[in-house]
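step: validate -> pass
step: tokenize input -> pass
step: predict -> running
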Amino acid sequence: MQVKVLCVGDIVGRPGRQVLAEHLTKLVQERSIDCVIANAENAAGGSGLTTQVYDKLGKYGVHLITLGDHTYRKREIIDTLSNADNIVRPANLPTQAAGKEIAYFRTAAGPVVAIISLLGRKHMNLLGDNPFHAAARVLSKISDDIRLIIVDIHAEMTGEKVAMGWFLDGKVTAVFGTHTHVPTADETILPNGTAYITDVGMTGAHESVLGRNIEPVLKSHLTQMPFAYSIATGDVRMNGVIITADGNTGRASAIERICIKLDQPVGDAYDNHDGRPDPSLGD
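step: predict -> pass
step: emit ->
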């Protein structure tokens, strides 16, 4: 039985949410997607996640949510992290940290998809466990009858992500990278059946510097002074990958990059589930 999993790159603020609101349902229907995973650590105002935005992502069709170094930027999300069954914080944060290390989604066809999030160590100010050790520890907790396991490695260094792919080859269905907001062209199926890509890219404004307006970022680089990095709104795209895997063995057979552009200016979005204006798009 083939299962298709869509992994969506870092959702950045209102523009990223709007392109999901407009295009996710259609993509799922056209490509027969069984499970949608999205990194949402920048989904609310460009940094962190709120309860309201978490609820909206579910209405848009996101089944499983991963986070990263901005997991606790919005304190209100802590209760959701503790109680919701479809969202994970990085597994290598301290064990006392709020949130779950593994989340599950049962597809309509039957197979269950498990998701794990890991933080890289290089340039990430990580105070938690070694992500390689954490991956091995968390994988040991997953039942043998769950074959479809997806890992989001949220890291700065490409070499660290590549190493994680090789470390987990044959142990998980897919390893996809997030955090750098720039899609890489190295999607592949590793020798033992694990789909891999170093970074799936960003779901947000691409006429920008990583989703932020260009001018204040340039001023900061030129002067070494702090400036507020506001969310950009030009050239909004959804980046991600579609992974095809065997639901019985968990082995991936294909990985395909996708890029979908927003059809209309930011601010005119409507919920794709009921046709009404979406009040949560405002930051």
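step: describe -> The two ends are 41 Å apart (CA to CA).
step: cleanup -> pass
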